[in-house]
Write a structure and sequence with these properties.
Number of strands: 28
InterPro entries: ATPase_NBD, Heat_shock_70_CS, HSP70_C_sf, HSP70_peptide-bd_sf, Hsp_70_fam
CATH architecture of the largest domain: 2-Layer Sandwich
Strand content: 25-35%
Pfam families: HSP70
Organism: Glomus cerebriforme
Largest sheet: 6 strands, mixed
Radius of gyration: 33 Å
Shape: elongated
CATH topology of the largest domain: Nucleotidyltransferase, domain 5
Keywords: ATP-binding, Chaperone, Nucleotide-binding
Protein name: Hsp71-like protein
Number of helices: 11
Helix content: 25-40%
Length: 582
Amino acid sequence: MIEVNNAVGIDLGTTYSCVGIWQNDRVVIIANDQGYRTTPSYVAFADKEILIGDAAKNQVAINPYNTVFDVHRLIGRSFNDQDVQSDMKLWPFRIIEKNEKPYIRVIYKGEEKDFTPEEILSMILTKMKETAEDFLGTPVKNAVITVPAYLNNSQYQAIKDAGLISGLNVLRIIIGSTAAAIAYGLGKKYSGERNVLFYDLGGDTCDVSLLTIESGTIEVIAVAGDTHIGGEDFNNRLINYFIQVFKRKFKKDLNSNMRALCRLRTQCERAKHTLSSSSQAFIEIDSLIEGIDFYTSLTRTKFEELNQDLFRSTIESVEKVLRDAKVDKNQVDEIILVGGSTPAAYGAAVQAAILSGETSEKIQDILLLDVAALSLGIETSGGVMMPFIKRNTIIPVEKSEIVPIDFDGQSSVLIQVYEGEHTQTSDNNLLGKFELTGIPSAPEGVMQIGVTFDIDANRFINVSAVEKTTGISNEITIINGLSEGEIEYMIAEAKNFRADREKTAQKIQARNCLENYVYNLRNVIQCINAMKDKLEVAVQESITWLDDNQEAEKDECEHKQKSLEEIANPIMMKLYGADSGP
């Protein structure tokens, strides 16, 4: 039996990540070592160490080629994917091809090293895991992770693989906007059903979910989204705009200088945030390139003009959700605009508590019914997609169909499994295939092949087929992630990287301790020297007084000693920790 104590909820965001846990009948969103509740999803490879989170993002301008971000846009994709090829032009770090997959190539400890997107994600998950462990004081082994709404099977598997590499058992993967719905619906009691639309425009993705919430039951009716629309795309529009502005004004091309582009990216992101509450923002960068200062401004109107087509495309996801759910706009009771990582991490933490057997009355009645994001089916005659599980079908689900045989005398049947919404399988994603062999020849229409699709709550897909007259059968479990050997190797590598980070952290801590001790001693010495001078003056004055007052009375001597003790006692107490005078 899997031990699920201290199960956490992690929002594995494209730009920021966040971790929470159910504790003392409430969700606690855990602050990182910098005191922030969200952590940048950045990983940087320095000369002697790997930096994750704030430390990585803060040095991006001086180490652009070895600082990795936006890695979600690579998971589960091939190197030749159109989006990958387009995004590569915008990133300072290098992407190479290995076995038709994209790898990130960086310089670490003076050597070239290649990482899969899953490995980079696992480092971010490790940071979240360590953040939770530092807070709890105990190991964390289990997690519920949130992801964008429209990921395909390969991308879901990549998240699971990243969890394994980081040392986490992934209890469940849920959609970010669905997790936010849990946070929103917690504790709310409705007299009837309410249709709630969740609109989540994040750093890299736009997720839209329509849910029905009633008495603790949260049912996902439909999801839609775009994995390539978000804050980073708005940033890129601004960067391209200011590159052209700079080129017109100074006749210099910023594309040739990655450090300058990283500094410009940082300022564009800040300007975007400023325009959320102001009508104008300023770009001010000293010595951007070749000693040229770049000072300019950006109005909210110009920002909206540059991104208007992206804004409109997010509405298409809203319309698609309503069409799929067969719900009219006036039937939507509430619209929730989801912002930041914490609502998703909040909902994920609640789901993690439920899966770990938490008995709190506040969450024991919550039931989450999730859906399949993409349609699943097989290829039939003419390369036509025969859907078995249509998108937005509630999972877990099992469905069987009889598949017609195309021609006479067929002794084997190839079952090819696809995901996607197109009628032709050539336009969809091939997930896997298997054969039924040894089937006795039969005329067309006589042989019957029963195919069954089974999707569990963790989105594992099992497809089986059986020839009805003979009972000959075969099946496949769809696993489009890394191989077992690759995962084992990456787990071992991750342990080495963690050991390197711990060694570096211990070295820094030891140096800091020594530095603090040295400077404290120096301060003590300086304090002692100052006190010593003061005490010597007082003692010399007392000796002089004794020489000059040979016939002094008792009261005069006692008064003089008391005056000297008022000076000496505090000094002696500091030096020796004594409670009495000399």
